[in-house]
Amino acid sequence: MPKNRNTFSFPALPAPVSGALAAASHWRRRATTRAVHEGWRLVQQAGAVSAQRPGKLRFGSLGHGSKLAFPQGTVFGEPWIHLGDHCIVGENVTLTAGLMPGLDLGPDPILTLGNGVVLGRGSHIIADTTVTIADDVYFGPHVYVTTTNHSYDDPGTPVGKQWPRMAPVSIGPGCWIGTNAVILPGAKLGRNVVVAAGSVVRSEVPDHAVVAGAPAKVVRTWDEEKGWQPPLRTPAPVPIPADITPEQLVALAELAEGEAS
């Protein structure tokens, strides 16, 4: 009986030769991986957008130290988009002003980001009318902000063909917007508001509040006399002293690792 033979099988090589080929193949794969990673790093550096290197994007203003990571998401209506200083816009973030590209939206900004705003990877800001985001607002990944909601007034017309409703959105200074949160038309967030991950905000939120849920509801507030109500479950973290140096931080981290082991 003839023995079955795999079409892609090859005779075994002597052990030393086989080992040498395996080692060479291993190093080739490592070199290829390193080359791909280094190439992508160079592409990301070259494709990042800043005031000094805006590429094809012409924002109404792009502040000092601000940068949009590469690859960018959909961006249009740039003349009506104003970014302050030291903003960080993550990869694949969509920033749009107006219903579609090529519109004349008038003399005033439509989408405004204050200083020190951070937009997490994959977030979207759809500003068909005004969106104002104040200083030091932080977005987690995949946050969705829109000024437009679909209408369904006419039951005989497809929802997508009915004229949408629009309302401005404003987010006060110091807010934290959690991952996958949705900020809907008409939302107005006060100062230092925390929006829990996955929440859907569609109304006004007072200063120093925590909201969660869909639709989002206030679950914690700040009282000048009693503090946070209901009280926080964990103590506040100890802040890093202002005069500590990076070298001292490294030394403390190494000391903590040594004690843990």
From TrEMBL:
It comes from the Bacteria. InterPro entries: Hexapep, Hexapep_transf_CS, Hexapeptide_acetyltransf, Trimer_LpxA-like_sf. Keywords: Acyltransferase, Repeat, Transferase. Transmembrane segments: none annotated. Gene3D superfamilies: Hexapeptide repeat proteins. GO terms for molecular function: acyltransferase activity. CDD domains: LbH_MAT_like. Belongs to the transferase hexapeptide repeat family. PANTHER family: ACETYLTRANSFERASE C18B11.09C-RELATED, SIALIC ACID SYNTHASE-RELATED. This is Acyltransferase. It comes from Streptomyces cremeus.
